[in-house]
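Hello support,

Our group uses your service weekly, and this is the first time we've seen a run hang past the timeout. The protein is DUF2460 domain-containing protein. I'm not sure whether the cause is the sequence or the server load. Input pasted verbatim:
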Amino acid sequence: MTDLQSFHEVRFPVAVSFGATGGPVRRNEIVLLTSGHERRNARFADSRRTYDAGTGLRSLEDAYEVLDFFEARRGSLHGFRFRDPFDMKSCRPDLAPQPDDQGIGTGDGAMEEFQLTKAYGSGADAYARQIAKPVEGTVRVAVDGTELEEGTGFSVDPTSGMVTFLAGHIPAADAVVTAGFEFDVPVRFDTDQLSLSLAGFRAGQIPTIPLTEIRP
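Update from on-call engineer: The timeout came from a worker crash unrelated to the input. Re-ran successfully.
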């Protein structure tokens, strides 16, 4: 789990993040055999997202806001929330989350807690990504297609993505548990130095502001 002492539950400036570039990174090892065939191995089971927030700067005000945010996080010391402009919902970015967007588990009549996840692909090749930073107030949950109300049927920890069913609403055996939500990505600055130039900014030179995902 993310060290809560090194993570600040604050969001990177949204206006800047929507102009950022980046996405998932995989680490695979490819070995060319003497036969000419390849042997491919995944070095890590999960992808890791990286971003460059510098491309999101549009004004001197944006640059100052990022500088202020950088100093408050002590550079790379503390993690924070980042709004991925390409992937921030349990559904397509142009749709609204629905309670049946993602399957997050199957009840056994006793289990109370279910981790939010998002699936990419389908069938045996699907990749399940753990969602640790849902946006508070956006999580919708259903059991066997019936939506429950947050606060009476379930609660959500916005710092971990854990859904807890309340007394009287624990999913029965074989009941399908689904959820829809918006979420942020836990990241940190991947540098301890911001190189900002007023002359360069006015000339259209975009500084590099690297961010890297923190594994939950």
